[in-house]
Amino acid sequence: MGELVYFRKKETGLLAQYMDSTIDTSELVKDADFEIVSMIVMDNEYDTFSLGGFLQNSSNKLLQGESGFLEQAKKLIKEQGKEKDVMWVAPTQYIGGDDVKFYKIKGDIDIDLAAEVGLGVVLYQGELMIYSPQPNEDPMDAVHEMVKLKVYLQLMHPENVDVKLRESFEKNSELIQSLMLIDHWKHMERLEEILRS
Question: For residues 151-185, b (16+ Cβ closer than 10 Å) or e, as one string?
C-alpha cells in the first residue's frame, strides 16, 4: 500500500487517477487464492495473440465464471474449429514473489489489452486485477512495471492524456515497444496518436 501512497503524492497522471489499491501477494497461492484470467495463444506460425485477439472476440465476453479459465480457453478454441491452428495456449506468466502486486483499477479491465501490453489479469476475491508477470528483482523491473501500467491506462483512457508519458514517449519509445508482448506496432501507433492529440 506504501507504493500507492507514493503515487498519489508524486504522480499526477493516470496512475494516480485510476489506481484504486494494491494487493500484497506474498501470502497468496496461485489457483487457490486467485486464478489467472489472461491467456496467450501461439499459433503454428509462432505468432502470439491474446485469447480474444486469436478468436476475434473479447476475452471479457468469452470467459465466464470464477475458475477454469485455461480449460474454457481450450474449449472455446476447439468449438471454433481452430484447435489444429494452435501450438499452445497458456495463462500469462506468473512468477510469484514478495514484490509482485495485484493492482485494483477503477473502471473496467480489458483482459486482452492488458495481456498484449505485457501485463496479466487475475481474478481475486471476485474482482479482476492487473499484475506484471515479471518479479521486481531488479530496480528497473519496477520502472518497467509502471511504464506498462501507464501505457495500459493511456490506451484505455485516450481522452485523458498522461502528460508525463507524453513527455517521455519520444526518448523512451523503443523501451515502451520492447515491453509489449503482442501487436506492439498497433498499440504504439495508437499510443502515438493519443499522445500527439
Answer: bbbbbbeeeebbeebbebbeeeeeebeebbbbbbe
Record the pTM.
Answer: 0.91
Chain centre to alpha carbon of residue 186: 16
Answer whether 53's CB lies under 8 Å from 116's CB: yes
Beta strands in 30-161 (DSSP E): 34-36, 39-43, 48-50, 86-91, 101-105, 120-124, 127-131
Three cell numbers, residue 71: 480449460
Check the CA dihedral 44-179-197-11 and report its sign. Answer: positive
Q: What is the mean pLDDT of the chain?
A: 90
Read off the pLDDT of residues 44-58 as tens digits, 9 standing for 90 and up: 999 999 999 999 999
Q: Is the pLDDT of residue 135 over 90?
A: no
Q: Do 120 and 131 meet the contact criterion of CB atoms below 8 Å apart?
A: yes
- Burial (0-12, 13-18, 19+ Cβ within 10 Å), 190: middle
Neighbour count for residue 84 (Cβ, 10 Å)? 8
Choose among 66, 86, 31: nearest CA to 75.
Answer: 86
- Helix or strand run (H / E) with residue 188: helix 184-195
Task: Tell which phi-psi region holds residue 127, choosing left (phi > 0), alpha (psi between -120 and 50) or beta.
Answer: beta
pLDDT tens-digit series, residues 167-179: 999 899 999 999 9
Amino acid at site 171 = K
